[in-house]
Amino acid sequence: NAGVTQTPKFQVLKTGQSMTLQCAQDMNHNSMYWYRQDPGMGLRLIYYSASEGTTDKGEVPNGYNVSRLNKREFSLRLESAAPSQTSVYFCASSLLDSYNEQFFGPGTRLTVL
Amino acid sequence: GDSVTQMEGPVTLSEEAFLTINCTYTATGYPSLFWYVQYPGEGLQLLLKATKADDKGSNKGFEATYRKETTSFHLEKGSVQVSDSAVYFCAVSSGSARQLTFGSGTQLTVLP
Question: How far apart, in whole angstroms, are the C-alpha atoms of residue A90 and residue B36?
Answer without folding.
Answer: 14
